[in-house]
Amino acid sequence: MSEKGSFWRGFLVAAAVTVGAVIFGAITLMAGIGIVILLGIGVVQLAWALPMYFSYRRRGETQTANGVLLAAGITFLLNASCWGIVGNAPIR
Fold first, then answer.
1. How far apart are the two ends of the chain, measured CA to CA in Å?
2. Average pLDDT of the residues in 8-17
3. So where are the chain's domains?
């Protein structure tokens, strides 16, 4: 079976959704909703990344699904590294 889809399309769609979530979180920060989105981006990401991944897989677009996973993984690693830096900052 040949692999279908476009890796870059999956990556860019997932990256666009992540950027959109961050912008939405920044806009709704004053309402109190934004803090949940910005601080919990990993959990928020699960709400869209896994369904998007499984949807592409079900349609047979394995390369597109792989692009979604890579974008989600990069977001996870950036989030984890930022929390590591903030969590290890000296308190003055």
1. 59
2. 96
3. 7-83
